[in-house]
Design goal:
The structure is a homodimer of 389-residue chains. Chain A has helices at residues 11-27, 38-45, 78-81, 102-110, 133-142, 152-160, 164-187, 194-208, 269-288, 295-307; strands spanning 5-6, 9-10, 32-35, 60-64, 70-74, 88-92, 118-121, 147-150, 215-222, 241-248, 250-251, 254-255, 258-264, 320-322, 329-332, 346-349, 352-356, 359-362, 365-369, 374-376, 386-388. The first copy, chain A, is of the alpha+beta class and 389 residues long. The first copy, chain A, is globular and about 70 Å long. The termini of chain A are far apart. The first copy, chain A, has 2 domains: 5-159, Creatinase/prolidase N-terminal domain (Creatine Amidinohydrolase, Chain A, domain 1, 3-Layer(aba) Sandwich); 164-388, Creatinase/methionine aminopeptidase superfamily (Creatine Amidinohydrolase). In chain A, helix 4 (102-110) crosses helix 5 (133-142) and helix 9 packs antiparallel against helix 10. Chains A and B meet through helix 3, helix 5, helix 8 and strand 9 of A and helix 3, helix 5, helix 8 and strand 9 of B.
Amino acid sequence: MIADNLYGFPRAEYEGRVDRAQRLMKQYCLDALLLTSMDNIRYFLGVDSTFWETYTRPWFVLVPAEGKPIAIIPAIGEALFAQTWVEDIRTWPSPRPEDEGTSLLAAAIRNLPRRYGRVGAELGLELRLGMPILQLSAIIGSIPEVEIVDGAGLIWQLRMIKSSAEVEKIRRAIAIAGAVFDQVPSFVTIGDSERKILRDFRGLLNAEGAGAIPTLICRSDVGGPFEITGGPRDRPIADGDLLFIDTGTTFDGYFCDYDRNYQVGRATDALRFAQDKVWEAHEVGLRKARPGITAAEVFKEMSEALSSVGADLNSNGRMGHGLGLRLTEPPSIRLGDETVLQPGMVICVEPALEYEAGKIVLHEETVLITEDGAELLTRRAPKQLVQIS
Amino acid sequence: MIADNLYGFPRAEYEGRVDRAQRLMKQYCLDALLLTSMDNIRYFLGVDSTFWETYTRPWFVLVPAEGKPIAIIPAIGEALFAQTWVEDIRTWPSPRPEDEGTSLLAAAIRNLPRRYGRVGAELGLELRLGMPILQLSAIIGSIPEVEIVDGAGLIWQLRMIKSSAEVEKIRRAIAIAGAVFDQVPSFVTIGDSERKILRDFRGLLNAEGAGAIPTLICRSDVGGPFEITGGPRDRPIADGDLLFIDTGTTFDGYFCDYDRNYQVGRATDALRFAQDKVWEAHEVGLRKARPGITAAEVFKEMSEALSSVGADLNSNGRMGHGLGLRLTEPPSIRLGDETVLQPGMVICVEPALEYEAGKIVLHEETVLITEDGAELLTRRAPKQLVQIS
């Protein structure tokens, strides 16, 4: 009863991912990868579930250096995992806090063919472990013959490069969000609250075929949002506002990360100047994002283009990042990130400027790095702000 | 610029939570709580953000045993946190992987008044740490004078008991989902796919005023869903199916967890018999859930009521759980969980039966434990299945 097309990918896609991971395991001297987070497990098995939302039951997948993945999961998930291509499924009756899969997982790790005595886990950069720390400690304590080491280097080296099938999912997520951004001037009017705009936007995303919508931010303030991380307010948008909408919408688990700005009524000269500057810095960044260039170099050129304004850059600390099964993935477009851009990377390029205290202009576009350049996946925002009246 | 009413709660609500936490810290011999996860930080500060979706930037809040909380956060969040009642906000320019707030947090812990030399963190039961494990290790290594211990006991003792203001949020989430469940027979017809039903359901939740909808499950199979954890399929619902819809919908961050079953066309006698049995076992559980009774006792009575059927119970491993800022919270309604039900607890009671191999009947209602009994927060499902044609 194995589905032929697992959440949009043929089985060969997953087998290819495991093959590449296994080649990297040799470089990293690992006997296996231990995966616990939704995105890493979905990456290898194609399983789609919102059960990660509950923290009662952890889920484990071992990808050994040779052979097929092993799923060690709560019994409640057995029938679901049986729909994927994983054949070796081991379960325990969960919840069982006194042994929440700990002994089963430890035994599975202990019985792996041992070449290096090292297993990579989600310990480091931009990773979160899908079980309590105390449980990991208990597992480590019960298998002294195996060292649990950081798998972040391998995981991101693998996941940073998207297959063309993955890029298609991201394109779909972008197309869905883009279709709704296009409609903003027709459903938003002066006097609407952030809360109403966000609700309408979310309804349209859903109607356009979005999957989960983990992030959707709407901020409107005089001359620009004072911050871009919080939930919506009841404040009505007013003449002179810059309306900012940013969404991490998914399709088959893959994200877009996509923002647009709208001028509400009249703009000041200062805002228009800042808008032009950010748009032009964006052009610089989008031209620079090419194979062989480092993430830091892309940042540097955009920041130089912006610094001529003489204003503070912004508090974001970076001007872009990778994108995939998570809203943000390595690399970061920032000074110090020497990751070399390579074909298959999908990068959000997002210059921002706090042109006056508490007035932010932030633009975001997404590119696919190709063999000989880059392809813009979003439709380029117009230099002239779209108007809302 | 402090909002008077922070995401639906007056400031006194948050101050009361900190007071109660501080009283418990003395019992648990802790100098502070270190919080990193969205729900725990929202619980104390009222901050609403989807920025936890990105794993690039960790967020830290210290609740000391005396005095006010301290936020140690990426600079990008400063303006948002300044809207909450927290006064002591310390920031670093994030991302900065070489020191992603580590030194700032270590210094803050080091400088806490030290009585016990112990700080409670999210290490244990049903908790996930909001930073990489390697970062926690670095912090622990740099403050040998302080022991980082498990804060799960305190956190859940505190959060298990809901204030009346919290219960109101859960009531709203339940009312929103309930209004959509009522409409199911009017927008679902034989031939619809799980994917379409789920999309329509999500659109209506949004229109009814839902916040984020982290979980929404739709499964339909002959005689009952074969599993209840996965994403939707294109399979059209057909005569003889039992259609199962389950949602974790939020309002101001608080969840409902709520399912309903619908008979598609004709039911077999076996399904009708199982449906009756689960409904009656539910009556038993709902009568049993009272202050002074343990979670295990509620499970035991429901499982006895079901076991007369002579079929396997189910693979869930429990028949209910707590509910609040997370979809599932302690306690678990299962053998072995000796948590005594107390006034203020909000408990989902969910008996289930796999009455034939791969045919599950699962019912879920939510109760508030009161001083002298329990109040049903959901509207009791009818014993007779609602029909879809």
